[in-house]
Amino acid sequence: MQNIDIEEERKVILREYRKLLRKSKPFLKDGDAKLIKKAFTTSMEAHKDMRRKSGEPYILHPIAVATICVEEIGLGTTSIISALLHDVVEDTDWELEDIEREFGPKVAPIIDGLTKISGVFEYGTSQQAENFRKMLLTLSKDVRVILIKLADRLHNMRTLESMPRNKQLKIASETIFLYAPLAHRLGLYAIKSELEDLHLKYTESEVYRDIANKINNTKAARKKFINNFVAPIEGELDKLKWNYYIKGRPKSIYSIWSKMKKQNIPFEQVYDLFAIRIIIEAPDEHEKAACWEVYSIVTDFYKPNPDRLRDWISTPKANGYESLHTTVMSDNSSWVEVQIRTSRMDEIAEKGYAAHWKYKDYYTKPEETRLEQWIARVREMLESNDTNAIEFLDDFRSNLFSDEVFVFTPKGELKTLPTGATALDFAFDIHTEIGAKCLGAKVNNKLVPLNYELKNGDQVEILTSNKQKPSEDWLRFVVSSKAKSKIKDVLKEDKKYAAVEGKEIVYRKLKQMKITPSDEVINKIRAYFEEKTPLDLYYGIATGKHDPKNIKKFQDEVLEGPQKNTKRIRSSADAKSFEQELKKAKGEDMLLIGEDMDVVDYVIAPCCNPIPGDEVFGFVTVNEGIKIHRTSCPNAPELLSNHGNRVVKARWTSQQEIAFLAGLQIIGTDRVGLISDVTQIISSELEVNMQSISVDTKDGIFEGKIHLFVQNTKHLDQLIRKLTAVRGIVKVNRYD
């Protein structure tokens, strides 16, 4: 073990603590500094024997979280105290009662919200999802819990380097799955962007490094372009004696990568790599007029794209974001996004919900407290929270991503719903009873069906009937969490009633087969019949969707299984017990894919088809043993977020001569002999076996899709390079 310089560590801790006090000084009231010091010494004492994975004293983590709360989110004393103590109950002997006694009734509930649930979980549920749910439930009481949790997650992501690989994947996946969208919804754009970038850094490190280097290499040219672009605007603003400042903001690495993927283009073809932001000082009552005046100055010099004007000043986003966005054509014929806002709007854009409190008096009209409205909607959803944790999380996430559509009641009252909302969503938004009895709607005085998708400015009147009742079909076209949860509540009651009979049938069958109906067995039957919950299984049996006779088949195929000669390891509920068994069999904790196949059975996940050379992880499934996924698999964030305890470290070792299936897409200009040249390279030059090839040519453009067997990623990269060099081919890329 390395020598630890205790005196040096003490200096570092004090330096960080003093930095925190300096940042908090402007808003401290009488007695606050004393309380913060007490929280610091309590945390210091509680964590005194603990170290982080990096080897540094643990106390540096709560100090860093508290500093992020002050400096980057703008929170106050209660939050600083809570951040300093956020791990004390979870990791030490302190109880919530001790926190309440020492620090009062405001701090204790926040610490409770930040403390993970301990204990044993029912088989088939997700401890992670339960913890997320517990934390999110506090959103209805005190939003500071979520804001401190975001600060905690940001610091964990910034220091992820020292964690083992499977923990990196789990934490990075949770971040993109829940925390980044949550930061976005609460208006914390800087934190959201950094969380997304750090997720990419640890899940697709090569992609991250490549884009970061390219952004860095274009920095000087970008700076010169921005200076030339803003010069005439600055001249005009100076002439009019405006108080302003202008900054060029590069797009985040993650958003550039998303654009490259979405549009299937290389970095060089992403034109809007940055945005120009003009921030002005203006009195509250003149803010709107001032922004439009600056817009007028910008468009005097540069021609705007009329389709790209976004006015979030008249109707702010649901997270309170206000800004005027326009995209204009620069002198060198490239599009540039210009954002115009006041300093008040800019602070809200950077610090989101926390800045909202600061400007509370500014908001007088009900439609301007949009973030409050969103939190009220979430609160309502949380109160009718009777679903399992994973289902709850899915519903909650669907609320985080959506943009809004603005519609009106017959009396002219403005309602905000997620984009894609239907007439039925609108009905449930007004009242649960109206939603449950909704028969149709009149939109702008025309009759429309329940699944009519609402557009901005629609005026909606709901038609009801006492004979109407919700059906399973409704869930296919509603998008709001409120509508989904209310429909599910009604259906669940009907389902529960029918499921009692189904449960009796399953238990009777198991009794005949002399099998004890434990949670584990029921969960395996559920997975075998491809149902989400045991309730769905019982309901499916009761309504005839599943034949009870197939339970016998389940016994033969899953419980008995083909007796192989290989040394099998029993499928287990989580990766830890699996890895312990693997250690006994193999003497180390790393699952090496590509050798020792007599020790571990695994299957390649069809959703992402990993091949040797890809970065991968193993996932312990309930019935199919271990599935191997690429870290960039589209299903990875959800698997790792909800079931991180089932992740097994995995990497390719000896490259045996095994062929793996990969897909290539080829785009180019059509010419005679092009297909012949392509197939020649694949089968003759590189001796690759093709499974299939499909070709489509339209208006002189050639698009081919080829499935072929390769040995590893190097083999595939070599093939892509060769094909790209063929005359007429513009692009070759791998797809899943």
Automatic annotation (TrEMBL):
Q: Cite the SMART domains for this sequence.
A: HDc (SM00471), RelA_SpoT (SM00954)
What InterPro entries has UniProt attached to this entry?
ACT-like_dom_sf, ACT_dom, Beta-grasp_dom_sf, HD/PDEase_dom, NT_sf, RelA/Spo_fam, RelA_SpoT, TGS
What single Pfam family name could you report for this chain, choosing any that match? HD_4
Q: Which CDD domains match?
A: ACT_RelA-SpoT, HDc, NT_Rel-Spo_like, TGS_RSH
Keywords from the named record: Kinase, Transferase
Q: Name one GO biological process term.
A: guanosine tetraphosphate metabolic process
Domain of life the protein comes from: Bacteria
Provide the TGS domain boundaries. 403-464
What's a Gene Ontology MF term here? kinase activity
Keyword ATP-binding included in the entry's annotation: no
* A GO term from the CC aspect: plasma membrane
What family name appears in the similarity comment? Belongs to the relA/spoT family.
- Function statement: In eubacteria ppGpp (guanosine 3'-diphosphate 5'-diphosphate) is a mediator of the stringent response that coordinates a variety of cellular activities in response to changes in nutritional abundance.
Q: Do you know which PANTHER family this protein is assigned to?
A: GTP PYROPHOSPHOKINASE, GUANOSINE-3',5'-BIS DIPHOSPHATE 3'-PYROPHOSPHOHYDROLASE
NCBIfam families, sorted: spoT_relA
Q: What is this protein called?
A: GTP pyrophosphokinase
Tell me which species this is from: Marivirga sericea
Q: What is the lineage of its organism?
A: Bacteria, Pseudomonadati, Bacteroidota, Cytophagia, Cytophagales
